[in-house]
Amino acid sequence: MQTVTLHLKVQPNAWAWLDQACREVNTAWNWANETSRRAIQTYDDGGRWLSAYDLDKLAVGAGDCFERIGSDVIQRVNAELVTRRIQFRKPVLRFRASGGRRRALGWIPFKAANLRLKGNRLRFMGKSIRLFEMDRFLEHRLMAGAKLGSGNFAQNALGEWFLNVPVQMPYPAGTTFDANGIPQLPVAPIECLGIDLGLKAVVTTSEGQVFEPNRSYRDNEAKLGNLQRAGHKKQAKRLHQKIRNQRQDYNHKLSSALVSQGQWIKIGDVSTAFLGAGTRAKSARDAAHGQLKAFLHYKGHRAGRSVDVVDEKYTTQTCSACLSRTGPKGSTGLRVRQWICSACGASHERDINAARLIKAAAPRCRRPIAGTRELR
């Protein structure tokens, strides 16, 4: 089975109801957050870290206190709180405000059983909800063997609501499987592909391909500034959303192109904090290296590729031919794009040389991925 996440816009007639349900979700989140904090600080032996099961037992009967959400939604809130607490390694997460300048964007998690299909609309906690792309939802939902997973309703900065739900679907007809049930997916033409992330070129591969950076923010920066100075907040938010969509679309196309080329993809562990410091902040945010890495990982898994992050330390200084550190060094050396190795005389283009070293580097942690073949 393969998983596809649907991102569908909800029609405006349900936005007001979802806004009120979101306030109840925020109340449940804040209760779970505060209860978890007290459990950690109360005990003398270092405190007790409550699990999602512990919070669920303490929240028994809380579903009767709310008008729009039930116990299933509260359990999903508790599970998400514990997951993010472990992810960020924090005893207390940020409380969700339902109003004011620091208001949290709407978010309503649910279990698969809470979302029911009735005719050409959905039923969620007794509320009828219509989608703009209902045909697309029905296409995946009614497919033979398809199964919905736990999802959520999410709100953007403009107040628009979207349905996000994963759907487990069978592989396309004609897909072959091995004795262990792992699908035999097509093999990429390049056995190993090194990727160097940067700003002047957002991606440079070990094969010499150079991808120019996305300039969605730079191209709209002047217009965005005029809207903000004029006080047109809603129009500025819409332009921000357009910039985000353009950036996301570019990274989707870029990641798909890279996954189609390399069977084993190695990415340099570029420091986003370093690239985003000083005068490089706008270019670093426009490049969205974190988003690109996430796309490469999940698309690589779906296509049967191995995607690993490797250490790129000294890749700009080391010669890929003789491994001597004769390249440009320090912050002043960033302006040097081409250099000649003084040890062996090899000529290098800075980013391509780094991508070749990344290709030869050992991965930090090699994890088996479904559909991949063993690389020797």
From TrEMBL:
Coiled coil: none annotated. Keywords: DNA recombination, DNA-binding, Transposition. Residues 189-271 form the Probable transposase IS891/IS1136/IS1341 domain. GO terms for molecular function: DNA binding. GO terms for biological process: DNA recombination; transposition. It holds the Pfam family Cas12f1-like_TNB. The keyword Iron does not apply. In the C-terminal section; belongs to the transposase 35 family. This is IS200/IS605 family element transposase accessory protein TnpB. The lineage of its organism: Bacteria, Pseudomonadati, Pseudomonadota, Gammaproteobacteria, Lysobacterales.
